[in-house]
Amino acid sequence: MIMIALLYGIIVGVEFRYLRLHQRKRRTFYFVIGTAAITFLYFEALYVFRDQYSIGLSLEAIFSPIDQLIVWRR
After folding, report:
1. Which sign does the torsion angle of CA 47, 50, 52, 55 carry?
2. 8 Å CB contact between 23 and 69
3. What is the residue extent of each domain of the chain?
């Protein structure tokens, strides 16, 4: 979890430096930093809930009815 925070800190630092060097608008700063914050929170939530949330379970919930429909028609 600390590594995730450090990685995002480095990413935000590089982005912030780039935006300042190229004199971007304040709106661009808000957009870039906001996007990084949202993705950071999402990634941390996935890390915390990794035992409860699984992409396999999500895919099964989506495609299970389709699979049952295909098997039923055979």
Report:
1. positive
2. no
3. 1-73
